[in-house]
Specification:
single chain; 165 residues; alpha/beta; Rossmann fold; 15% strand; globular; binds 5-O-phosphono-beta-D-ribofuranose
């Protein structure tokens, strides 16, 4: 029997992958069953609707959606499913992702998209947020997340600065 996918990672183009792979890598690190796909809002609208409409039935707990420019993908997915959508603004060529950020974060009242930082940090944090959501009902996963945070604390605590000349 095939494994139930817990988190979907979708993006508007394969050019988004360099950013969105940061989400997939975190999910892999935490052992979360996930999939990664291109589902372009303006080039594949029917596939976008089908993905969103099937998400709950397929058992997805979250969809991490990344897009750049006039980034409709996260909001349109959210309009067609109540599975939580975590939006990642991808840095765009001309406006460096500020356009993506505004497109994703400014959802009108009633259909939320949880929006993360532009770029790699946002993609990684969206995945960490999905892990935290899943950890609510999974003590072993919560322990892994606590360990991840502890390692960061240790690394920051060990940081030193060069002496002032
Ligand atoms: C958006 O347009 C994608 O999410 C991507 O960030 C941007 C550019 O897409 P490509 O022209 O690289 O396919 O749809």
């Amino acid at each position: 029997m095939s494994e139930t996918i817990q988190v979907g990672v979708v993006m508007g183009s394969n050019s988004d992958w360099e950013t969105m792979r940061n989400a997939a890598e975190i999910l892999t690190q935490f052992g979360i069953a996930h999939e990664a796909k291109v589902v372009s809002a303006h080039r594949m609208p029917d596939a976008l609707f089908a993905y969103a409409e099937s998400a709950a039935g397929r058992g997805l707990s979250a969809i991490i959606a990344g897009a750049g420019g006039a980034a409709h993908l996260p909001g349109m997915l959210a309009s067609k499913t109540t599975v939580p959508v975590l939006g990642v603004p991808v840095a765009s060529r001309h406006l460096q992702g500020v356009d993506s950020l505004y497109s994703i974060v400014q959802m009108p009242k009633g259909v939320p998209v949880a929006t993360f930082a532009i770029g790699n940090a946002g993609a990684a944090n969206a995945a960490l947020f999905a892990v935290a959501m899943l950890a609510v009902n999974d003590p072993a996963l919560r322990a892994k997340l606590d360990e991840f945070r502890s390692r960061q604390t240790e690394a920051a605590t060990a940081m030193t600065l060069p002496p002032v000349a």
